[in-house]
Amino acid sequence: MAGGAINESIIVDFAKHFTHIGPINGLSGTAQPGVFYRDFERETLKKHVLMPSYPASRDMCQIGGITANNSGGEKSLEYGKVENFVTELKVVLPTAKSIQLSRSIKTASSQD
């Protein structure tokens, strides 16, 4: 299933090699793009946290895909889409150069 590929597109399948779930602590977690959301959710729930903007296809979607598509789901009206939860991406460009993209996220306590 490739939700974003509706025309001439290249689909990159990260499911075989990019499946590491990194540390999950406090309100942050790290995962590679091939991690299935269902597996990431299982690990986050062990720490009593959740990335709530999961789509209906959460049992078969991957972190990279939901991030690339800025996915939303049944909790998006209350919590927002994926863009509300991603603070940092490591991206590999077509030139093979990798870059780090970062931003801060406002929390309920930091909003005016």
Short account of what is shown:
With 112 residues, this protein is an alpha+beta fold.
Structure description:
By secondary structure, this protein is an alpha+beta fold. It has a domain of 66 residues. Helices cover 18% and strands 17% of the residues. A two-stranded antiparallel ribbon has the order 1-2. The protein has a two-stranded antiparallel ribbon with strand order 3-4. Strand 3 and strand 4 form a beta hairpin. The N and C termini lie far apart (41 Å). The mean pLDDT is 84.
Record field, number of beta strands: 4
Average pLDDT across residues?
84
Distance between the termini: 41 Å
Outline the low-pLDDT stretches.
Answer: none
Rg calculated over all Cα atoms: 14 Å
Strand/helix succession: EEHHHEE
Q: Beta-sheet strand percentage?
A: 15-25%
Q: Count the helices. How many?
A: 3
Profile the largest sheet: 2 strands, antiparallel
Task: Tell me the helix content.
Answer: 10-25%
Strand order of the largest sheet: 1-2
Broad structural category: alpha+beta
What does the overall shape look like? globular
